[in-house]
Amino acid sequence: MNLNKPKADSNNSEVFLEHKRKKKWVNKKSGDISYMLYARALYVTWGNRENWNWNCFKETSDEDIEVAKLSHVCWLDVRGKFKISDLSPGIVYEIVYVVKLTKGASGWELPIMLKLALPNGKVQERQVILLDKPRGEWIELNVGNFVVEKGEEREVNFDLYEHGGHWKKGLIIKGAILRPKS
């Protein structure tokens, strides 16, 4: 399973942006652009230290980045947005959240919602049940797919949420990846 991007090799060049809140990489063969928005580049509701722990994590490139570990909330809401003009036109992109459930994770009986809102007003929404997911390993939650139109200047918005009102804990958010769909 490809949890970040292809391993650093001669086919990709990468650079960290905005104080390691984002990472951009370009496939040297195709020229296609991908981005990783780390947890600090996302809007995390109740993202204070009472509800979330912000910890350093060693990235695949051996860089330290920050991840958000859920202590406890009853209202889960993690949102991202991205300017489409920064992506490669004419390419089908996918957005995935990269998350991990800790061994002691609980409260995930209700499904979480994944939502993608496109500039043209179209919305893709789906449910994912985390209760069945493996513990202690990074997993990808596919939010949706879209085509980048040439000259598009607006933003794509993507959410991961569960507003059921019951307490949950033990979810680690690494970030969200925008990459060409393979």
Low-confidence stretches: 1-10
Helix content bin = under 10%
- Give the number of domains: 1
Number of β-strand runs: 13
- If classified by CATH, what would the architecture be? Sandwich
For this structure, the CATH topology is Jelly Rolls
Shape: globular
Tally of alpha and pi helices: 0
Q: So what's the CATH class?
A: Mainly Beta
The H-level CATH homologous superfamily, spelled out, is Galactose-binding domain-like
H/E topology pattern: EEEEEEEEEEEEE
Oligomer: single chain
Query: How is the biggest beta sheet arranged?
Result: 8 strands, antiparallel
Task: Tell me the structural class.
Answer: mainly beta
Tell me the fraction of residues in β-strands, as a range. Answer: over 45%
Please report the distance between the alpha carbons of the first and last residues: 12 Å
As a whole number of angstroms, the C-alpha radius of gyration is: 16 Å
Mean pLDDT level: 86
GO molecular function, one term: carbohydrate binding
Organism: Cephalotus follicularis (Albany pitcher plant)
Protein name: PP2 domain-containing protein
What does this protein look like?
The two termini are 12 Å apart. Strands 1, 2, 3, 5, 6, 8, 11 and 13 form an eight-stranded antiparallel beta sheet that branches. Strands 4-7-12-9-10 form a five-stranded antiparallel beta sheet, with no helix packed on it. It has one domain (38-180): Jelly Rolls, CATH 2.60.120. Helix content is 0%, strand content 54%. It is mainly beta and 182 residues long.
